[in-house]
Amino acid sequence: MSLLKLDGIHHSYFTQTTATTALSDISLDIEEGEFVSFLGPSGCGKTTLLSIIAGLIKPTEGTVMLEGQSVQESVNKIGYMLQQDYLFPWKSIEENILLGLKIGGTLKSSKIEYAKSLLEQMGLKGFETQYPKQLSGGMRQRVALVRTLATEPKLLMLDEPFSALDYQTKLKLEDLVSDTLKSYGKTAILVTHDIGEAIAMSDRIFLFSARPGKLHRTFLVPDELRKLTPFNARNHETYSVLFQKVWKELESLESREEH
Ligand SMILES: Nc1ncnc2c1ncn2[C@@H]1O[C@H](COP(=O)(O)OP(=O)(O)OP(=O)(O)O)[C@@H](O)[C@H]1O
């Protein structure tokens, strides 16, 4: 059984006078432990689809099942990492990380130990008593990921989590996030505008067409890239071949939108 199953998703936004169809007939499956990316022209409905998967928006038509249950019954199984870290500035790094567990009523010693091991793995040991403003943007994003992983979500939604970072920090964080998610066998969906990031980090890439967003094509990332770190994948010859393919396909979708 797939971890996540979307079947016939269709979504329109309605006002009193207008209807905007954002998504049309999206069906896809994501397996446990897979890392997939959602790519597509601006406005093709990626954020709408993430919100539907998270159970924040009920689709006009279609179903979303996580581990065979409707998402409305599984909201606590989903974790987020967003473009902004949304850490509480008045709380220390440790307090920020443990907050999700506290709110969820699962602040047990085994969970605290797990959070501490994540903190160490993300290179944040020694920063527990510091405050967000004392950390760099890349470090704050690492704290945000630890806070998310600490609640042990089944599915992680990564909504452009690297797009506000400088290029070098972004490349380093891609490696660290990829390594951490692989080592814990986590399933993740990355929304990005960066084709290279999608190729370097994913097992599969879902390419959506312009509004209304439809699943246009799925690209399988070849094994020789998947076994490398994202940084090393970017330097492999197969990477450029796939980059060209995805680029051309995306460009054709964007030019269709303009006419
Ligand atoms: N609350 C809303 N009410 C009406 N229309 C909306 C609403 N939210 C999104 N839309 C429309 O639905 C379409 C899809 O929007 P969405 O934000 O999901 O796309 P996206 O692919 O995430 O965009 P981007 O890549 O620019 O972030 C767009 O045309 C947008 O204008």
TrEMBL record:
SUPFAM superfamilies: P-loop containing nucleoside triphosphate hydrolases. GO terms for molecular function: ATP binding. Signal peptide: none annotated. It comes from the Bacteria. The keyword ATP-binding applies. Pfam families: ABC_tran. Keywords: ATP-binding, Nucleotide-binding, Transport. Residues 4-235 form the ABC transporter domain. The keyword Transport applies. SMART domains: AAA (SM00382). PANTHER family: ABC TRANSPORTER ATP-BINDING PROTEIN, TAURINE IMPORT ATP-BINDING PROTEIN-RELATED. This is ABC transporter ATP-binding protein. It comes from Robertmurraya mangrovi.
